[in-house]
Amino acid sequence: MTSRRHLAAIMTAAALFSSGSAQAVNWALEAGATSEDTAALGVMVHNDESLLSDWLSGAWRLGLSTGVQLYEGDRESDNAAWIVRPALRYTAQGGIPWFAEAGIGAALFLDTRLESRDLGSAFQFEDRLALGMPLGSGELRLSVRHYSNADIKLPNEGFEVLSLGYRLGSF
After folding, report:
1. Beta-carbon neighbour count of residue 8 at 10 Å?
2. What is the DSSP string of 102-118?
3. Which of 18, 134, 152, 156 is most deeply packed, by most CB within 10 A?
4. Of 112, 110, 91, nearest in space to 171 by CA
5. Tens digit of pLDDT for each residue in 96-128?
6. What is the pTM (predicted TM-score) of this model?
C-alpha cells in the first residue's frame, strides 16, 4: 500500500495542511473498507470554525475537511484520492451526546481504476453520512461514503466505503 504515488499524495496534502493555523484545524484518522473489501485508510484535517455561522446556530454547524484517502489494491491496482469534504452537522441537545453529519464533496483520484471497477474519471463526487459521539479529547464516528462521477464520463462504476474514524478535538 506504500507506493511512490501514495507517498507523493500524502506529502502534497501535508504541505497544504501545514499552511493553516494549528488552533484552527483538527486531525482525524479513518480506517475502513470499500464495497469490494478493499482496505481504505484516510488522514483528514477539519476546519474547527463553523462556516456560515451567521445563518446557522444552535445545534447546526457547517464545516470543511480535506485530506488523503489511500486504497490498498492487488499489486498495481492500489489508488489514492485527495478529498474536499463539506459537512452539515446536527448535534443533539441534552441527554446522550451524539451528532449526525451529511455532505456532498469531491475527490480527485490518482487512477481511474480501483480493483475491478472502472471509475470513468479521476474526478468523483463523495456523498457522505456519519454518526458519532464525543470520546476522550476527540470524537468517534462511523461513516458511509459513496463515490461516483455522476455520469460525467462513462463507465461510472462507483463504490462505497464504510469506515470508523477518530478526530482529535471537536467540531
Report:
1. 12
2. EEEEEEEESSSEETTEE
3. 156
4. 91
5. 889 999 999 999 999 998 888 899 999 999 999
6. 0.83
